[in-house]
Amino acid sequence: MTTTLWSRSESATDWGGLDPHNLRSTALLRLLRGFMTARCFVAVVLVALQVFSWWIGTATPPVLLLVLAASYLAATLVGWRFARVVPPIRSFSSAWFTTIAVDLLAFALLQFIQVGNINYAPLFALPVLMAAVLGTVTVGLGTTAIATLLLLADATWHWVNGGGDSTVRFVQAALTGTGLFVVALLAHELALRLAREESMALRSRSTARLHALVSDLVIETLSEGVLVIDAKGLVHAANPAAENILGQDLSRMDLPFALDTHPAWQALALLARQTFARSKGLSQEIPVAQSQGKAREVRVRTRLTPSIDHRIDGLCVMFLQDLRELEARIRTEKLAAMGRMSAAVAHEIRNPLAAITQASALLYEDLEEPGQRKLTEMVQHNAQRLARIVDDVLDVSRARQQRMLPLGEQLVLDVTVRTLAEEWVRQSQRQGVLVQLDTAGSAVRFDAEHLRRILVNLLDNAARYAGDREGAIQVATREAPNGRPVLQVWSDGAPLEAAVQRHLFEPFFSSESRSSGLGLFICRELCERHGASIGYERRALAANGPEGNEFYVMFAPAEMRISQ
Fold first, then answer.
1. Whole-structure pTM over 0.70, yes or no?
2. 148 Cβ partners below 8 Å, 6+ apart?
3. 152, 277, 310, 522 - which has most CB atoms within 10 Å?
């Protein structure tokens, strides 16, 4: 269809301040199609009426009326198929002439050459309504005025030709014109109201859709699991966090589904029923069984949505929170508190360590028996090692300003890793550890003691979960595609849960109750201090081999200037 241009003044004057561009609504288009169909229907009725009059033997004029009715039918069909009308009709343009003007002309001619007592004046209501509903005030009232003038012209024509009922025709034309003006005004106001309410409905729907998108985005990114449950226990919505917490292939289930589908969710379904029964939110800690691994402790909170309609019950929104993640945040807060007291801790620990080191050195000078001197050396060595550990932990907690590491501190990776791995095997008496070194003597900038701590920590973790077979733990070095050396520690342990993977390198987070949760965190801090990176992935070492847990350290290039 062609586009009709509107000016701002016409918009404000004729359509009550509404933007006519926004008024090209589906409602007005439906009304346009209704009027076009009504014109065709009226034309068919007129043709049928004239055929019936001609068939029963009325005088010659009905033949002329039949031709006129047939011509009007053809005009309405052509207009219905080819007319380019875009509501609202702004003026007496081509759209008005091809539709409304054709109706006025056809009905006026029928009224002029009517036979008998047939009155075609009521037909003028169709073009008047069409102009009032689909056009501006000017078009609607102008069309009504033209229809009234045509009726008055018909009455004048009969009066000039000596018609006996001229007075009746004048009165009838005046009353009909008055009624048409009232109908035009009322129809135009109703059309304005329809357009205004549809515009408000469209804006409200757009706003509601935008709010729904924002709500979906917020729910999708929440770290808490969210389930939306009705009074029958059917789940209508679930976010990805709920899938991570509940497991059991929740994402593959078609919504809505019964919450008690799995036995592991029976306690959740019971809590939802209690929430509806008591009409208030509840809170409870529930163990939820997983498809893999041990059960997960979950804090569950329920809230009821208000019922908008008394015929429709509200919904229960269930919030799921993994207690381990909550504990991880608490541990992080503990780390912040530890940073504030780190200075006092440093003095309290360093002073006894210094006294132990000094006393062992003095004792070493007075001892002559080799066995006792060896024990003293062990005390000194471990005291110095403990002092370095304290320094590193306090450096992390206080997050002091970075400083440059010595540029000359380099290690031959393969040699160092072999030495450290053999030392760990001797101390742990762990059998079946495979070592494969493939970096061809590459050197890396790394502190030897820090590398030892990282490797020992990763091997301790691997030994905690690995099996007893040969090759259950494997230590390897290789060169990454970007040319950087990589240290790998692989074990055949069970896969880590998604919630555990997200917090592997956070402080005080551990899946073991007796672990401090600082091991992997300090490993990450030591790696970052040397420009390296540490990560985790689940993979198989060989194409057909078993999958396992691999921790890897990718070292910085040898020529890189490392900052701490």
1. no
2. 173, 176, 177, 180, 181
3. 522
